[in-house]
Specification:
Elements (H helix, E strand, L loop, with lengths): L3 E3 L8 H12 L7 E4 L4 H11 L7 E5 L10 H4 L2 H14 L3 E5 L7 H10 L4 E4 L3 E4 L1 E2 L4 E2 L5 E5 L4 H14 L4 E3 L6 H10 L3 E2 L4 H4 L3 H16 L14
């Protein structure tokens, strides 16, 4: 209810196949292109970036240190400020392109992690990733998901995401990509007011493939109605 519980992990064809099969299609699109980079070790993150550095299509990297659905790496790095900083610092040395640290909400103090990442060279922060969740089959008395737990996304996590985006906005002075339960223009505007520089739509696309465009159109309409000339006026404009 109110979301999606997934255990997809970070399955992908690998960076070589990605460069050969996916990037040619992306090159035809007139949009900035941010590649989500993951790894089981710090060295793997660096290796992926080093390969992508040879591709002109790539504009920036989202360093994923927050996936809950892998047994090694992923969220393991994102729950400790020193480990998070180590990954970001290594990636920073490997590229001059912007690096955004994608953070997990499954921590006590997300602002502490954000500060560590920025100090290590992150150009921005992306948050939140999914919240740890679980489902149980009461007849078999076993977890529904093979790994036991998975990642909860969708409308149910929006209040958590908003609180963490705002906490990070107050803690660091870098751009923030906010996400977590955004399915309409109102949701997106809340994130902007909380301090997000940009927003991302994820789970809503599984329900309605045109959700992103609907959100964009709704933001434009709201700005017209409220007399907002530039959407950037909303960033961090929350009155407390």
């Amino acid at each position: 209810p109110s979301g999606m519980l997934n255990s997809i992990g970070l399955q992908n064809p690998g960076v070589e196949a990605f460069c050969a099969e996916e990037l040619p299609w992306v090159e035809r699109l007139d949009v900035p292109f941010i590649v989500n980079v993951s790894g089981h070790t710090v060295e793997e993150y660096v290796q992926v970036i080093e390969r992508l550095e040879r591709e002109e299509t790539v504009d920036a990297y989202e360093i994923n240190i927050s996936c809950p659905n892998v047994d090694a790496g992923g969220m393991t790095f994102g729950t400790d400020p020193h480990a998070a900083a180590a990954v970001i610092a290594a990636c920073r040395k490997a590229t001059k392109r912007d690096c955004y640290a994608k953070l997990t909400p499954n921590v006590t103090d997300v602002a502490e992690i954000a500060r560590a990442c920025v100090d290590a060279g992150a150009d921005g922060i992306s948050l939140i990733n999914t919240v740890l969740g679980m489902a149980i089959d009461i007849r078999s008395r076993r977890p529904v998901l093979e790994r036991g737990v998975g990642g909860l996304s969708g409308p149910a996590i929006k209040p958590i995401a908003l609180a963490q985006v705002h906490a990070v906005y107050r803690a660091v002075e870098v751009p923030i990509i906010g996400m977590g339960g955004i399915s309409c223009a109102t949701d997106a505007i809340e994130f902007l007011l909380a301090g997000a520089t940009a927003v991302a739509v994820g789970t809503a696309n599984f329900i309605e493939p045109t959700a992103t465009m609907t959100v964009i159109d709704g933001i434009e309409q709201w700005c017209d109605e409220e007399g907002v000339d530039n959407v950037r006026e909303l960033i961090g404009a929350l009155e407390e």
